[in-house]
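Revision sheet: structure tokens.
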Amino acid sequence: MESPTLETAAPLAADPRPDLVGRTREELTAFAVEHGMRPFRGQQLTEWLHRHAVVDFAAMTNIARADRERLARIARIGRLRPVREERSADGTRKFLFALEDGRTVETVLIPDEERRTLCISTQVGCAMGCRFCLTAQQGLERHLTSGEIVGQLLEVQRLTGERVTNAVFMGMGEPLHNFEAVVRAVQVLTDDRGVGLSARRLTVSTCGLVPRIRELTERREVRFALAVSLNATTDAQREEVMPVNRRYPIRELVAAIAHYARVRRDMGFVEYVLLGGFNDTPEDARRLARLLRPVRCKINLIPYNAVEGAPYAAPTEEAVETFRRILLDAGYSVFTRKPRGRDIRAACGQLRQAQAAPSTQP
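Predicted:
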């Protein structure tokens, strides 16, 4: 299914009014007070914007008309524009959204029995350069705002009529490279007065920006689950596929994961993309088991999804099963991710901007 066409992704004229969608309840309260309204308007705004997802201040019926009219003059409710939707044979749905400057991002909804998991993008492109990921090939164009991050979930719920039950920040971009916007979006999405996602059902993934992992771990007001993309068992191997390892080597990264588990009293997720003939041997599995011994974590194995321009192949089913069995025998909780949406290029590592950005920078 595709609707409408890509031509709808032309830039909009800039609107100087601030977008309220990406603001936390505390920030909405401060905004209301700053503009002469009572503090409780912040909670009302949170409920209308994030729980009910209204797109017009006039629809906020328990707010006085004078305040609604004032809000319409001084602020706006930002929206992403649906450009295209594709549906996989397995039920996965990939959405292409246009941003106000004409750039585009992809968002993926993955249904699984009672769960509706949304894979959310945090940047247009990515600066991390992971060689197995299609998003990395376009480089970083810009960070998304917190409103654009939250807006993906709100817009998908509007389009599908279904409530998103789980969110993973595993779409386009490196979430911790866009740190403050991601922190704000997590707070918005887990606010029980608004979107109301459980913190255990919201996962922030990272390629391994160690200082940001530690900073986010210490931000106790930010509730989330951590997933770290490791993908190798030696520094030489990891540097070949993930340039970030030159700055934050494996030993530092594993220590940061252990710190998260200790401080948060939570088991983080270690993600391991299995690249056929590169990091999927029994010896790799045994090294991984030894490497993670000091860490309380679960392991997600992700069989590689082929992308253009990457010199890697998918692992064999036998290699995946052998790898999994070695880790299970070592006492780890291991999950093998089932590829979803491959036929519409919505699987892990296959997202990218589907339309060239305009020449004018935002």
